[in-house]
C-alpha cells in the first residue's frame, strides 16, 4: 500500500507526519510519502518519512497568509509553486493507493486535480466555533472527500447535516506533547510561560512582551518567565530584542511542553502553539502583535475557537498586566479556563485513530 500525505504549513506538516508515523506502525507493508507544499519537510524527515516535494517557505512564512504585503511577495516568489506541486503529484497518480490531505480547501482541490480520486481530508483550519465552512466548501468536500476529519465535534455535526461524511477523532496536534524533563522552573518561583511566535515577527513581539514583563516584575518579584523558543527562531536575537532586563527570564529551546506545563499561565502571540497550550489545560493571555500571525482578526478567531481559555486583551500594556494579575490571584478561574481549553481541543490520540481510518487497519487490543 502506497499512501501520500499532502500538507501546507508548519502545524499541518507536523500533524501529517505524526499520522504517517502511526500508519507505518499499524501497517508494516505500507509506504508513506510526505508532500509538504510550503516547507522543506523537516517534520516528515525526522520521523523517517520520505518527502516527494519541498519548497522553501515564502516571504510571509505561509503561502496562504492573507495580508496584502505578504500576498504580493508570496505571489511574486512562489507563483509557480502550486503548478510544480500539481505536476509532481500527477506523476505518482498510478502508484498511490490512498491520499490524505492535511490543510485547507485549496490543498484538497490541488490533491483532487492531481490524483482524480476521492481523498481523505483532515481540516484543522476551520471550525464552527469561529469560521464555519462555506457552502461551496461543503460541496467540494462532499464531491472529493472519502471522509473529513474535523477540528471538533460541532463542526463534524454541521458537515454531516449537509451530507458530508465527517467525524471528529481528536486533534493530532495534541499528540507527542509529553513532558521530557528538559526544563525545570526555579524552586520557590511562580512561572509564566512566554510564546512570542515561530516566524520573523517573534522578535518584535518579544519586545512588546518585555514591556509587560517589566511591569509585572515591579509588583511580583517572585515571578519567573520562561520563553519557549521555536526551532525556527534565533535564540540570541530573540533575547537581544527584549533589551536590558533582570535575571528573572530564561530563553529555552526544545522544551516547549516542559515550559508551558509548568506555567501558571502563558502569554502567547503564537498560532498552533496556543491551541496546544489550551489543550493542555493552561489559560492564555494574548494581545495584538506585529505581524500577520497576531492581527486582531486572527486573535479574535482564536479566542472564539478556544473559548475563555484564551483572553485577547485590547488595552496594552496596562490591561494585559491587570488580566495576568487577575489570573495569578484566582486559582479557580485558572482551572475553569484551562478546563474549557481541554474541552475545545479534545484528548490526544487523534493521529492513531485517523491512521486507522486511512490505512483500513485496526490496532489489536
Return the structural class.
alpha/beta
How many beta-strand runs? 13
Count of helix runs: 15
Percentage of residues assigned to helices: 40-55%
Roughly what fraction of the amino acids lie in strands?
Answer: 15-25%
Query: What is the total domain count?
Result: 2
Write the CATH homologous superfamily of the largest domain.
Glycogen Phosphorylase B
Note down, in words, how this protein is organized.
- The structure is a single chain.
- The chain is an alpha/beta fold and 365 residues long.
- It folds into two domains: 2-175 and 348-359, Glycogen Phosphorylase B (Rossmann fold, 3-Layer(aba) Sandwich); 190-345, Rossmann fold (3-Layer(aba) Sandwich), CATH 3.40.50.
- It is 43% helix and 16% strand.
- The protein has helices spanning 10-26, 42-45, 68-78, 81-90, 105-115, 135-144, 153-161, 202-219, 235-241, 256-261, 272-279, 296-306, 318-328, 331-345, 350-359, and strands at 2-7, 31-36, 50-51, 98-102, 119-123, 145-150, 166-167, 190-195, 223-229, 249-253, 265-268, 284-286, 310-312.
- Helix 5 (105-115) runs parallel beside helix 6 and helix 11 packs across helix 14.
- The mean pLDDT is 91.
Amino acid at each position: 500500500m502506497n499512501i501520500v500525505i499532502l500538507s501546507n504549513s508548519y502545524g499541518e506538516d507536523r500533524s501529517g507526519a505524526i499520522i504517517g508515523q502511526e500508519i507505518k506502525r499499524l501497517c508494516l507493508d505500507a509506504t508513506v510519502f510526505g508532500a509538504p507544499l510550503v516547507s522543506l519537510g523537516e517534520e516528515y524527515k525526522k520521523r523517517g518519512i520520505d518527502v516527494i516535494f519541498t519548497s522553501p517557505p515564502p516571504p510571509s512564512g505561509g503561502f496562504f497568509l492573507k495580508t496584502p504585503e505578504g500576498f504580493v511577495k508570496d505571489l511574486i516568489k512562489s507563483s509557480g509553486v502550486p503548478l510544480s506541486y500539481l505536476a509532481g503529484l500527477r506523476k505518482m497518480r498510478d502508484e498511490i493507493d490512498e491520499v490524505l490531505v492535511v490543510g485547507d480547501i485549496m490543498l484538497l482541490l490541488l490533491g483532487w486535480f492531481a490524483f482524480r480520486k476521492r481523498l481523505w481530508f483532515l481540516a484543522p483550519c476551520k471550525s464552527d466555533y469561529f469560521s464555519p465552512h462555506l457552502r461551496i466548501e461543503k460541496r467540494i468536500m462532499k464531491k472529493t472527500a472519502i471522509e473529513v476529519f474535523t477540528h471538533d465535534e460541532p463542526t463534524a455535526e454541521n458537515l454531516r447535516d449537509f451530507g458530508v461524511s465527517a467525524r471528529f477523532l481528536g486533534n493530532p496536534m495534541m499528540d507527542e506533547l509529553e513532558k521530557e524533563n528538559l526544563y525545570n522552573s526555579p524552586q520557590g518561583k511562580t512561572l509564566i510561560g512566554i510564546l512570542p511566535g515561530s516566524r520573523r515577527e517573534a522578535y518584535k513581539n518579544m519586545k512588546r512582551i518585555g514591556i509587560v514583563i517589566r511591569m509585572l516584575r515591579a509588583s511580583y518579584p517572585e515571578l519567573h518567565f520562561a520563553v519557549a523558543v521555536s526551532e525556527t527562531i534565533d535564540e540570541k536575537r530573540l533575547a537581544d530584542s527584549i533589551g536590558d532586563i533582570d535575571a528573572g527570564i530564561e530563553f529555552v529551546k526544545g522544551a516547549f511542553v516542559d515550559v508551558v506545563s509548568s506555567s501558571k499561565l502563558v502569554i502567547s502571540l503564537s498560532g498552533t502553539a496556543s491551541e496546544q497550550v489550551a489543550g493542555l489545560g493552561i489559560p492564555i493571555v494574548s494581545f495584538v502583535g506585529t505581524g500577520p500571525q497576531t492581527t486582531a482578526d486572527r486573535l479574535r478567531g482564536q479566542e472564539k475557537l478556544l473559548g475563555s481559555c484564551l483572553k485577547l486583551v485590547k488595552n496594552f500594556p496596562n490591561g494585559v498586566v491587570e488580566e495576568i494579575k487577575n489570573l495569578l490571584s484566582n486559582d479557580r478561574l485558572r482551572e475553569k479556563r484551562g478546563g474549557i481549553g481541554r474541552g475545545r481541543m479534545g484528548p490526544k490520540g487523534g493521529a492513531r485513530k485517523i491512521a486507522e481510518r486511512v490505512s483500513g487497519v485496526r490496532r489489536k487490543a
